[in-house]
Amino acid sequence: MKISAIVTLKKDVLDPQGKVVQQALKGMGFDNVKEIRQGKYFEIDVDENDKKKAEKKAEEMCKKLLANLVIEDFKIIGSQ
Amino acid sequence: MNSSVIIFPGSNCDRDMAVALKKFGFKNKMVWHNDTELPKSDLVVLPGGFSYGDYLRCGSMASKSKIIDSVIKFAKSGGLLLGICNGFQILTETELLPGVLLKNKYSKFICKNVFVKINNSENKYFKNIKKNILELHIAHNEGNFFCSNDQMKEINDNNQIAVHYCSQNGEIEDSFNPNGAIKNIAGLFNKEKNILGMMPHPERMIDNYLSGEDGSIFFQNLINNLK
Amino acid sequence: MEVNENIALEHGLNKPEYKKICELLKRTPNITELGIFSAMWNEHCSYKSSRLHLKNLPTKGKKVIQGPGENAGVIDIGDDDAIVFKIESHNHPSFIEPYQGAATGVGGIMRDVFTMGARPIANLNSIHFGSPQHKKTKNLLRGVVQGIGGYGNCIGVPTIGGQTSFDESYNGNILVNAMTLGLVKKNKIFYSKAAGVNKPVIYVGSKTGRDGIHGASMASAVFDEKIEEKKPTVQVGDPFTEKLLLEACLELMEGDSIISIQDMGAAGLTSSSIEMASKGKLGIELNLNKVPCRESNMTPYEIMLSESQERMLIVLENGKEKDAKKIFDKWNLDFSIIGKTTNSKKIELFYDDKKVAEIPVDTLVENSPMYDRKWKKTKLPKKNKFSKENFKNLKIGNVLTKLLSNPNICNKEWIWEQYDHTVMGDTIQKPGSDSGIVRVHGTDKAVAATVDSSAVYCFAHPLTGGKQVVCESWRNLISVGAEPIAITNCLNFGNPEKDTNMGEFVECVQGIGEASKYLNFPVVSGNVSFYNETKDKGIKPTPAIGGVGLIKNFKNMITMDFKKVDNIVLVIGKTEGSLDQSVFAREILNIKNGPPPEINLFNEKNNGETVLNLIKKKLIMSAHDISLGGIMVAIAKMCIKAKKGIKLKKTNQLINQFQYLFSEDQGRYIVEIEKDKFQEVKEMLNKSSVHYDELGHILDKDIIIDDKTKLSIDDLVKSNYTWLKGYMDK
Asked: FRET pair for C480, CA 20 to 30 Å: which of A46, C402, C627, C730?
């Protein structure tokens, strides 16, 4: 089973990269960009057929390694 | 000889480069990234540093800045364009040079002296250079050169590899590769050899109280070839 | 929301402090005012436990332009040049999030330096971790090193030196101390003192977010039900913005529009605005709606207490706003006129056209609490007696190999290769030397800097330990040929409310004071970090000393690598054989009690000045101070750096060979001299009554200690270089 997860900086944590990307886009003429926040995307292939169990595993991985819960949130966005 | 060093927000080797160029006889001008016109130059340099904080991808946002159109025009008409470190990354992002510079193999910033061997000296940069192996300094987090097989074939067919990482005696082997770059590539030309991108910093090696003096050989040779 | 005693306690204030606030205001403060008091009166900003004792430190000297009390200290290095420098701790944040904690620590100290108009030219750091076996140590070390590098490298300031130690007392509290040196022209130094009424107060830099807002206060769910979302957030460093801020500030400073400037560090807008007003004996009025915010709906409380990074507060001359804004626009930074100076001597805050706070400035600063905390004197431990029995089964070669790979002695290349130490093109001595050295750009001058600490000595006897750290700093500067000028200190201690910890602090400070006074090596800036304790267990007392010295002509600097075969090697200073608290006693003999080596300030000064004189007369080819591991480790390091060897003479010492080679007696140096200069050197040493031993002469590659002991330089290199790499990359 393939699980997709995204990790993003928590809402109130400064995202320096997102801020500078937004400024650069503005400079290129994309005037209506309000905000950009950057994150990481993971595809995790787990040897597990039960969707719930697989997602639970992935969640654990996010908690323990993929996301730094001090500054980041994660979300399981899909599984197939 | 006139040179121009482009300053992007976040450049931090711009002054060092200007110091080196002046030391070896260039009349140098600093050019701000938001300008559109390049001053008359025999050499244009994209210096090292962290343009735009290295955010998104190293060099990606600098490659979209206002001055870049003039820089591309200058290079396409045969002008000498040198990119050091972050400058090399900008050159790949503008696609003036092929490939991409990935994160170092061991995911660490590396600051140390390395040896490089000149692979192709039939160009303005290395012609008549008195040493074939130079000791230069690297300081980067993303210097791991990578390209597709097709690109590699083209690079080889056109003899575009400028310098390889090597041992003190010139052996080009894995153990002398600091960052995992394909074929130990430390520097690369375009097909016409007027554009050179290099990870090592010759401008940090211009007197014997610094890390060494092989950078002086590079700059002296370059200006001699331009005269 | 009504403020009461409980809320005050949650803000870290105690009952008498809260009572005093109400008395000073003659009313109950509102929540914003309480937040401001708690920030200004906490240990970090008010130095309430330490102030009393810090007052006794020597802070003046012929070359001191600015002592403690400003953003950083300033010293005169001649020709109208001055060096601005300071060290600061970022311990607690680095334990929670090592990368960001260390990165923002570096960012903060650099801001302190360029706030004064100086361009940063060198960074150093002192970092301390728990036992290598502790499960957290490796990741903390990796994160901290990457954080320091990530920030400093991006700004383009070389990291030229530092110190790393491991000790189980840091298992629950790592230490991250960052130091920056900046260069400025004497007549272009900027201060935080505001002057003049009705001058515009300007906010520049990054936007304000909810970063780092006081944990204790936010944790009480009284503000909002959605407390989860509002939890205090870790400060994230943005070195790119700092680089822009640095360039923009220095550009603005070229003109004459700035009256006063202050970076927003701990307690952000609160402490910066109050500091400016307090020093200028003025009032300040701010319209918080004008503060550029990252998040919507930020309250006055949050705006005032946010610790978002990369922000500055400036008081400008009237009429200069437009020119200043142009510069910040060029660098793509926020610029906002948020208030003005007044003659009210109050801080007055407005939000949505309402006055949300009004506090007399002196209640926050001059009336802030100061405590004479109880403290306990540490008795000097009794010396251990060492006899032949102790050394019976030891072989010098094995001992040396073991010491060279000891975590606290081994080569730290794995760390400093991740720091850009050559950017700016003036680094002439890089990390791994006695001091890092950068040239003063475009001149013959060079500045040497070192950072040192000896928690083991300080723990055994704080008074001696405090003296020792200052002496070590002084020796590290002399060893490279620099004239020591002044120091900055970062005082890392446990809980000041415990009399033992407080005693450690008091006596270390006393020791620092005595030594720096005697050596004419004044303290010009510093920082105190208390409460480095977890579950009742505090760290060993760890004052870190950052020393700065000047080399008039950089071509005369000295390095520690042996230069030429057959040259003579001397030990300067007397070797008494004190093994107590040495690495040898602790690690090889497993004897961990006893006093630290004695400090004799007269010898320290006399030996140091004599070595410096020899260097000035160009009689010394290489030099290295003797510290951890004694003579044997010192000469091994000089051999390793040069890939050369040494043959030791037969000693006619009265003490045992192990005591001679591994004791950590203070005030000693190893120096290399040429044969034909020996006579002249001897005469100079005798004339100054400096004790010396002729240790041996330099060989091509082997280290020959006696008939039985011959070591190969390659083996020593291996033992010195492999431990840390192996540990980290395993």
From this structure: C402
CATH code of the domain occupying A2-79: 3.30.1280.10
Among C90, C128, C461, C624, which one carries the catalytic annotation? C90
Q: What is the full DSSP assignment across B153-216?
A: HHHHHTT-EEEEEE-TT----GGG-SS--GGGEEEEE-TTS-EEEESSBGGG-SBTTTTBSHHH
pLDDT at C535: 81
Q: Which residues contact C638 (CB under 8 A, 6 or more apart)?
A: C560, C561, C562, C622, C624, C646, C670, C672
Q: Name all domains of chain B by residue range, CATH numbers in brackets.
A: 2-226 (3.40.50.880)
Which range, A18-32, B109-123, C218-232, has the best average confidence (pLDDT)? B109-123
Q: Rounded to an integer, what distance in angstroms lies between the CA atom of residue B141 and that of residue C214?
A: 35
Distance CA A51, CA C37 (A): 53
Among chain A residues, CA nearest to C212: A13
* Segment B7-11 mean pLDDT: 96
Q: How far apart are the first and last CA of chain C?
A: 54
Among chain A residues, the shortest Cα distance to B54 is held by: A17
Confidence of residue B56 (pLDDT cuts 50, 70, 90): confident
Asked if B52 reaches chain A (Cβ–Cβ under 8 Å), the answer is: yes
Contact A70 C229 (CB under 8 A): no
Max CA pair span of chain C? 87
Other chains touching C, judged by 3 or more CB pairs under 8 Å: A, B
Q: What is the mean pLDDT of chain C?
A: 93
A9: pLDDT strictly greater than 80: yes
Banded pLDDT at C232 (limits 50, 70, 90): low
**What are the backbone dihedrals phi and psi of residue C181, each rounded to the nearest 5 degrees, phi first?**
-115, 140
Query: What sign has the CA pseudo-torsion C476, C477, C478, C484?
Result: negative
Residue C225 confidence (pLDDT) above 60: no
Return the closest-CA partner of residue C588 out of C459, C377, C403. Answer: C403
Q: For residue range C304-319, what is the model confidence (pLDDT) as tens digits?
A: 999 999 999 999 999 9
**pLDDT of C486:** 98
Is the Cα dihedral C283, C287, C292, C293 positive or negative? positive
Q: C415: which 2 tokens?
A: 């760390």
The residue annotated as part of the active site, out of B13, B58, B85, B166, is: B85
ipTM score of the complex?
Answer: 0.95
Amino acid C233: pLDDT: 64
Query: CB C729 to CB B106 under 8 A?
Result: yes
Query: What's the confidence (pLDDT) of residue C218?
Result: 39
CA distance C2 to C639: 69
